[in-house]
Inverse folding.
């Protein structure tokens, strides 16, 4: 990892936190282990620690803790370490690590549009500050670098799939020259906690897709917060409700309506600096299928 890459990474993290604090957010501490964590919508090896007759899972994302944290404060963010023991076939994707950090944020009573607007401002602000401080280095690394303008394009998942086929996301990412949002992702392609839209088929959610082939860098959306809807979504995903007693008991107590997202720090740096792989965006990188320091 180049010294300059580390400096850009440090500045990006600082500026992201600075921006969110200016918008009334408070930073909370990350949760590393918990009896429950994000189930994800794809297979990874389970990472559990036996303890005192039970198990702690390593955090795959703080989605549930974010929802609960909104009981205490209406706007929160975390630079959250995530452990996802991905399968070896993702080793050479350039986009996957088994240990990474994402900027997780959540806002009480927010809509998807609120988060889309916030993320646009966050990305633009951070890229402007990076250009001001490291412009020569960044443009040497990435001749395509430029700060995007609002609003980012919105692309509907099903419309894009119908037009371009199953590889539409990769194709659009290669064709575009600015970040764009992929919205209204089908219920089958996501976890149970993203809110189901009125059409009963798609979710009130979004991915941020980077251009020049760098692919997805953020996921988020509005959240399910009503007990009956959450149970119905779990049943749709064929989940064992007994495994989710911790969460369901908290939902019965009441959790706020909210929306939020998680932005991968390493993927953001890869995009900004035109890096070959996310492994070049952090010290002590751990690729799928490898044991590394």
């Amino acid at each position: 990892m180049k010294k300059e890459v580390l400096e850009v990474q440090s500045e990006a993290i600082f500026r992201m936190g600075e921006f969110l604090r200016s918008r009334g957010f408070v930073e909370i501490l990350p949760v590393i282990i918990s009896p429950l964590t994000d189930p994800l919508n794809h297979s990874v090896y389970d990472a559990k620690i036996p303890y005192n007759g039970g198990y702690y899972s390593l955090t795959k994302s703080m989605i549930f803790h974010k929802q609960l944290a909104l009981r205490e404060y209406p706007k929160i963010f975390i630079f959250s370490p995530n452990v996802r023991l991905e399968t070896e076939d993702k080793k050479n994707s350039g986009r996957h690590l088994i240990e990474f950090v994402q900027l997780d944020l959540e806002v009480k009573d927010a809509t998807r549009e609120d988060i889309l607007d916030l993320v646009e401002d966050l990305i633009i602000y951070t890229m402007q500050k990076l250009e001001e401080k490291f412009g020569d280095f960044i443009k040497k690394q990435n001749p395509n670098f430029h700060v995007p303008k609002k609003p980012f394009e919105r692309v509907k998942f099903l419309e894009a799939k119908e037009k371009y086929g199953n590889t539409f996301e990769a194709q659009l990412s290669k064709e575009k020259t600015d970040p764009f949002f992929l919205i209204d992702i089908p219920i089958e392609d996501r976890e149970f906690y993203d809110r189901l839209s009125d059409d009963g088929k798609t979710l009130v959610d979004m991915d941020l897709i980077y251009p020049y082939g760098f692919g997805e860098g953020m996921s988020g959306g509005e959240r399910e917060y009503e007990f009956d809807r959450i149970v119905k979504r779990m049943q749709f995903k064929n989940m064992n409700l007994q495994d989710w007693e911790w969460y369901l008991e908290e939902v019965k107590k009441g959790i706020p309506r909210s929306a939020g997202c998680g932005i991968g720090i390493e993927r953001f740096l890869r995009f900004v600096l035109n890096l070959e792989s996310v492994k070049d965006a952090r010290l002590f990188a751990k690729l799928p299928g490898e044991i590394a320091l």
Summary: The CA atoms of residues 184 and 199 lie 10 Å apart.
